[in-house]
Here is the input.
Amino acid sequence: MTISTDLAYADRLDAQDDLGHFRDRFMIAEDELIYMDGNSLGRLPMAATELATDMIHQQWGTRLIRSWNEGWFTAPERIGAKIAHLIGAHEDEVIVAESTSINLFKLVMAALRLQSGRAHILTDDLNFPSDLYILQGVIELLDKQHQLEIMPSADGVYGPVSALQARLSEQTALLTLSHTVFKSGYLYDMAALTAAAHDAGSLVLWDLSHSVGAVPVDLHAANADLAIGCTYKYLNGGPGAPAFLYVRRDLQEKLLNPLSGWMGQRDLFDFKLDYQPAPGLRRFLTGTPPMMSLALIEPGVELLLEAGIDKLRAKSLRQSNYLIQLWQRELEPLGFTLKTPREAQQRGSHVSLGHQEGLRIDLALINDMQVLPDFRAPDNIRLGITPLYTTYRDIYQTVLRLKAIVTERLYEKYSTDAPIVT
Amino acid sequence: MTISTDLAYADRLDAQDDLGHFRDRFMIAEDELIYMDGNSLGRLPMAATELATDMIHQQWGTRLIRSWNEGWFTAPERIGAKIAHLIGAHEDEVIVAESTSINLFKLVMAALRLQSGRAHILTDDLNFPSDLYILQGVIELLDKQHQLEIMPSADGVYGPVSALQARLSEQTALLTLSHTVFKSGYLYDMAALTAAAHDAGSLVLWDLSHSVGAVPVDLHAANADLAIGCTYKYLNGGPGAPAFLYVRRDLQEKLLNPLSGWMGQRDLFDFKLDYQPAPGLRRFLTGTPPMMSLALIEPGVELLLEAGIDKLRAKSLRQSNYLIQLWQRELEPLGFTLKTPREAQQRGSHVSLGHQEGLRIDLALINDMQVLPDFRAPDNIRLGITPLYTTYRDIYQTVLRLKAIVTERLYEKYSTDAPIVT
Here is the structure.
């Protein structure tokens, strides 16, 4: 194949793509920009621009305090119910609240209290550092018996499945893992790990931040206990938009939120001095939700529901397979390594490429090549595939530009001291 | 005075008001609406509408992930520094993060760890129930020795100052109070209570939610240790906008955030597995901030700085005095009680009126009279004075309409089962 043939091939794939029209539902301000970072901050849905105007002028500016009774109070459940459809949960099992980190703290602390007599939290070193930091904070607050066990991945790509399974014991209170691993894109077998944990009497908490909206998740099929996740990545909810949490129905009344806040109080306007947790998931709310950021989650979720998560997954895998094929032909000979599983069922929706000049290549890609990936130390160039708007042409051109950066040594002008974008 | 004379008098006061022009800097969508709830949700600054458009189209829609390096990462400190000027703090002593409740949890837990050997938290029953709920949650997480002591107010209006002072002991780890009390508007003498607590070796945490932007606060003059506060009331930051926290410089490196999150990590993009707190106030950040809600705080704070907090306080007191005079003449004979201190130096920026038919009067005021106050059980009609946009005419008409509701028995059609707005 020649390059021109290849470009035509990419365009033909785009032309045949029955999800391709969803790209028009997003703001594409710079036609020439190739955005490969939707797994970090999703693009702006056009419907969110209209909603933002309504939120500002009508809901805040005009209705003022009345808006709390006109949809704001119930927004955490309403949007949670929509997210539930993406992750195989009942509508009353998901609620939007605070941030992923804060929600992790709430659920881990609640789980440890329920699991009295068991003092270990089990995880792996592929988990988000942000999650590990929260887990360390939880351990600090508890008595000396509590421990955090971090199983190492052998290669930094694949989850240490058998080590985790071997480590589960009558001491394990909670197994918590990132379902799709943020660096390598490795995808855990949720059902298998959950079953193994349950066999040992442990609860399981899944961080779905890199799965929700990208990978079909079936919390019920896996009988998962707890989950958290982010809304600003594949859900396109906007920068730093509040996160969600899932608690299986039968656990909801057994768990208590350690961050016992007014929004989780049973009778909000009685102003009683004693905290009484609300029934159901509302008890896991704490503070007043940031409504501008919260409301704007809804349009992105609706786009995903409209497209259908199974179709999105199928396209995502076609696109990541395409990217891996191009890597093999164009980039592997130039020293790029594949840091993502080749097996489709073990892969989320991004592909990480390593290179000994990874950071400088990343900088050249951003500054000279109109491609926005992201970078994860030490040398991962992370390419996010967001099938609602990523085109085959985007992928093809990204590969070609990576190739040019190395063959033409365009990275050499960059220093490794440059700041890194999230 | 006749009523027409009175209205002319109110209008004359407005005409003489050198802050009156600030009302034009806010969206006033319904001219006929009298908004007396700016102490619960501040109005929309016009500058925030422009900023919201920029945030949506330019910062999120166009710049995408790049915006994190173009102002988003530093927004918590940048906006915190502006708030610092309203509360007598250094710029590097205030940061915007999460919600008031979450920030309270962080600082209380951090303070208790620093005060090992002391196990009591002291507060009063005039404090926000939301704060008491968080304090209860903190106590639940700690060992059995820790206690929450809630001093009762004798009359529900004035803070139990001498009871608090008498209760301070070598067991008191932390005294925490709401500087302006949410029901009665009672204003604590921050310097006196802080000094008394320090004499006993206790730390002090002030909740400034009903003071910031309404009352001059001088944390340094009082040598206050810790503070938290809300941005969506007098700061006009938008519904549920993130809160702020203050930690005096010399305490910053001594305190550790129990909600140890990625945003508070020393080297954000090293992705090390061990949490290392950032120097200074950033360690008190936890999750990724909700940028839409966070960014929109800034225009409201800038308006307050432009007007000047001392001038705002002077107007607020003139207006609350005016309201109290009108109450005495028009409403006291109808059974309305004043539930706010008459002494100006003991009063924040709202006035609470009680009545045995309080809730039904409140409902008539909202539904029939185009006045939006708020209501706090059991019978408080709370009238917020927000001198950036409250007019003397607003106050005069509110009083007249309250009078009409009672004299014409307009409240009788309402049930006390109606829902209540925050």
User: Anything to note?
Assistant: Chain B touches chain A through 86 residues (CB under 8 Å). The longest strand of chain B covers residues 172-178.
